[in-house]
Design a protein that fits this description.
This protein is about 15% helix and about 45% strand.
Length: about 130
């Protein structure tokens, strides 16, 4: 008999503690999660090696994490004022899985046939990026 009484008292304490600790809808509004802010376009550092009419361009940029996937292609662009430039189109796919969220320098290389001493521009995911030459 004593065992049942002790078990009942312990069960009542556990039940009351649970009821008092559970949040209720009347406790206040639920704060929504902040909307994702679009990351700024990263700066691209390019290194160009010209040999026998072919530019071998190595580009590096700071990705949000080491799990990001980067691909690049380069094309010779002509503008209305008949000036030519090389455009490096970089696609940066950010991995949303479990990954250490620490900025990581990622390098990618591409080649294009073009004249020497031609300006190089870069775009990341279709948005023009600032470029610096190394």
């Amino acid at each position: 008999m004593r065992l049942w009484t002790a078990a009942t008292i312990i069960a009542v304490f556990i039940f009351v503690g649970f009821v008092l600790s559970v949040p209720r809808a009347s406790d206040g509004p639920i704060v929504p999660l902040p909307e994702e802010v679009e990351a700024p376009t990263p700066s691209v550092t390019v290194h160009d090696v010209f040999k026998k009419g072919i530019h071998t361009i190595t580009a590096s940029l700071l990705a949000p994490n080491a799990c990001a996937t980067v691909t690049a292609s380069s094309t010779l662009q002509s503008t209305a004022s008949s000036t030519e430039s090389i455009l490096i189109a970089i696609e940066l796919a950010i991995d949303t899985g479990v990954c250490l969220q620490m900025p990581t320098l990622i390098k990618v290389s591409t080649t294009v046939t073009a004249p020497s001493n031609i300006p190089i521009t870069a775009s990341v995911n279709g948005v023009m990026a600032s470029t610096t030459e190394s």
